[in-house]
């Protein structure tokens, strides 16, 4: 990556601060190409997290000191996160804020930009700066069928970045990381969090939005996700589904325009027809593979490689050969 | 109860969507009501239908869109689903608005509705399928100084309180907020009703009210392309994929798949 041309500070949202997901490591990598990177949290980072931040060149973590009304579970609400990010920008004179592209982070990013009078780009696939130091973001839109470039016209920029936009790289030299508290006030009416249960992550598999390989099953599985998970495990991949499969109760998370947007190196869809809503969430994948017993399935139009056949036969056989290949 | 439902006019995702001069082409032949706003309309109608008779009769559901004249398509569809009133905010000065410009126009429309009587709830979809931003509801709530309760999977309004359950990437949450509030509903919240014959007939006679930037006292420097904080400078279609490599499974389709991945260094 080119050396930064402007001596700017870039803030990266780290919420929660109990782990550093690969999507956040990507933000550090992008951030370092633009300037000096600092992290913003709503809670104390763990020791392991601090070590990772150091390896990625983050010298300073700004940890919010929240008013009582915004503490506890309320701290993850987008209005609280936004108040924190905006206060951190004022504190540090940073002019770029990077966040992941989750639903709540997008809201927080927009609200931060609103408070700062800054421009916001949602779902960027690249972030660079032009000769004048303006932030330039690339996006893939319309189900991955168009590429756009946007320039932020305001002095400050807030950008949410999709996972799998860059390969995360540690900094050339590790640094030691210090945590500094700063006071945050939250204006406006914030909803009350009556109850909150963090989503359990399957420790044995990568998360859907961040995985380099995704295997997804649809209605064609007939409810048996065994072959889908078998292939996923052979590949070390995340498992996803179509919305119909989730609505049937066969799996919990779906890929698509209203579900999780994925852009992995490889997406494998099995028993999925390839409806526009589904495509919208996976068409930006680098390689698309499909298994479907209907030679006319629309998903074949956007595939690199496809097998016309019954997924119950095809997936276990593929899994077996991949396992054997890995053992070599 | 008075509810404003925000509905967007977007290019049909089944059509060939494209840009021209870095702007989204909004061809009326291929434009439609944002599907996800049908969930918003359904949620609003159900909230009103669940009220006691007298309150229900005193209720009003108003569809509001910020769009060029073609946006009437979205408002008409809202009529067919059963809303009482429809408003289109249109002005040449609004063309090229970013999220903030759009939000300013929507907020001004809600404020104007408030001059007639309180608006208890603003309901939106979880995202507009053209840009998939999912940020207008939160921005609008901030603009109006109301709590934002977004991405609802389950919605309950009890007296003056809104309670919602949602599933984000991070957690399952139950949130509550006092009315007036802004609510966005997920696609999982409900199954939108089909317009029946009676509603389609009733919709025919309904008039769409149109409001201009001047009607809403909008600051023209903050909206449209002039006020936009970001500018799309390039838009190009992605190159077509090469022909798909299609293998018929005759007993070794799985092997072919595995070998494809191995050969391309994807394992
Ligand atoms: C507002 C809205 C938003 C939506 N958002 C999303 C979204 O985000 N994500 C999403 O996925 N969907 C979404 N949908 C639903 C979407 O339109 C489709 O209905 C859905 O994606 C279809 O799921 P499917 O491919 O599993 O099922 P189907 O379309 O029924 O396809 C099943 C496929 O399996 C094949 N098949 C059957 N048996 C076998 C077998 N033994 N082996 C191999 N192949 C087999 C069939 O040939 C067929 O192609 C949305 C819909 C709406 C209205
Ligand atoms: N121009 C618009 N007119 C009316 N409603 C809109 C408009 N833009 C966005 N909305 C509403 O805000 C929701 C989220 O939009 P977005 O933040 O653009 O993804 C949509 O589902 C609509 O309910």
Summarize it:
Chain A is an alpha/beta fold and about 325 residues long.
Can you describe this structure?
The complex is a heterodimer of chains A (328) and B (267). With 328 residues, chain A is α/β, with parallel strands linked by helices. Chain A is 27% helix and 28% strand. Chain A has a nine-stranded mixed beta sheet with strand order 7-6-5-8-4-1-2-3-9. Chain B has a seven-stranded parallel beta sheet with strand order 9-13-8-1-6-7-14, sandwiched between helices. A three-stranded antiparallel beta sheet of chain B has the order 10-11-12, with no helix packed on it. Chain B has a two-stranded antiparallel ribbon with strand order 2-5. Chains A and B meet through helix 4, strand 5, strand 6, strand 7 and strand 10 of A and helix 5, strand 9, strand 12, strand 15 and strand 16 of B. The complex binds flavin-adenine dinucleotide (FAD) and adenosine monophosphate.
């Amino acid at each position: 990556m080119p050396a930064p041309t402007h001596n700017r500070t870039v803030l990266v949202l780290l919420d929660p601060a109990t782990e550093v997901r690969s999507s956040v490591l990507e933000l550090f990598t992008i951030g370092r190409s633009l300037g000096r990177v600092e992290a913003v949290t709503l809670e104390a980072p763990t020791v392991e997290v601090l070590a990772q931040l150091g390896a990625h060149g983050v010298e300073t973590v700004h940890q919010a000191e929240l008013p009582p009304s915004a503490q506890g579970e309320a701290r993850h609400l987008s209005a609280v996160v936004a108040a924190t990010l905006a206060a951190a920008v004022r504190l540090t004179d940073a002019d770029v804020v990077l966040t992941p592209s989750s639903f709540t982070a997008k809201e927080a990013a927009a609200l931060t930009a609103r408070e700062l009078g800054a421009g916001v780009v949602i779902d960027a696939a690249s972030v660079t700066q032009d000769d004048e130091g303006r932030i330039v973001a690339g996006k893939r839109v319309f189900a991955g069928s168009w590429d756009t470039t946007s320039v932020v016209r305001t002095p400050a920029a807030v950008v949410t970045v999709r996972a799998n936009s860059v390969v995360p790289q540690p900094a050339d030299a590790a640094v030691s990381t210090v945590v500094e508290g700063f006071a945050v006030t939250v204006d406006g009416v914030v909803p009350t969090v009556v109850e909150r249960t963090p989503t359990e992550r399957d420790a044995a598999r990568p998360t859907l939005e961040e995985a380099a390989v995704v295997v997804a099953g649809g209605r064609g599985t007939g409810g048996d996700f065994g072959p889908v998970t078998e292939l996923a495990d052979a590949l070390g991949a995340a498992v996803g589904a179509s919305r119909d499969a989730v609505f049937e109760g066969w799996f919990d998370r779906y890929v698509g325009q209203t579900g999780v947007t994925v852009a992995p190196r490889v997406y494998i869809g099995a028993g999925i027809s390839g409806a526009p809503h589904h495509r919208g969430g996976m068409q930006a994948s680098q390689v698309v593979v499909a298994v479907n017993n209907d030679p006319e399935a629309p998903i074949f139009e956007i595939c690199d490689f496809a097998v016309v056949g019954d997924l119950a036969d095809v997936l276990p056989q593929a899994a077996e050969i991949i396992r054997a290949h890995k053992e070599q | 109860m008075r509810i404003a439902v925000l509905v967007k006019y977007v290019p049909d995702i089944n059509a060939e969507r494209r840009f021209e001069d870095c702007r989204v082409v909004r061809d009326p032949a291929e434009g439609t009501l944002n599907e996800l706003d049908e969930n918003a309309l359904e949620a609003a109608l159900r909230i009103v239908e669940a009220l006691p008779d007298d309150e229900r009769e005193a209720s009003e559901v108003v569809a509001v869109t910020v769009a060029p004249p073609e946006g009437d398509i979205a408002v008409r569809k809202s009529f067919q689903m059963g809303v009482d009133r429809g408003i289109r905010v249109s002005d040449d000065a609004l063309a090229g608005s970013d999220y903030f410009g759009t939000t300013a126009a929507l907020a001004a429309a809600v404020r104007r509705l408030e001059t007639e009587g309180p608006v208890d709830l603003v309901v939106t979809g979880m995202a507009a399928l053209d840009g998939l931003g999912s940020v207008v509801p939160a921005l609008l709530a901030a603009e109006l100084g109301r709590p934002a309760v977004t991405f609802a999977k389950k919605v309950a309004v009890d007296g003056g309180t809104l309670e919602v359950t949602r599933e984000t990437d991070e957690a399952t949450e139950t949130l509550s907020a006092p009315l007036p509030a802004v609510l966005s509903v997920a696609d999982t919240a409900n199954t939108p009703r089909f317009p029946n014959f009676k509603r389609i007939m009733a919709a025919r006679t309904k008039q769409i009210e149109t409001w201009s930037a001047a009607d809403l006292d909008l600051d023209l420097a903050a909206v449209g392309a002039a006020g936009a904080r970001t500018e799309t400078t390039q838009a190009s279609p992605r190159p077509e994929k090469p022909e798909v490599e299609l293998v018929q499974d005759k007993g070794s389709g799985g092997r072919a798949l595995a070998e494809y991945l191995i050969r391309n260094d994807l394992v």
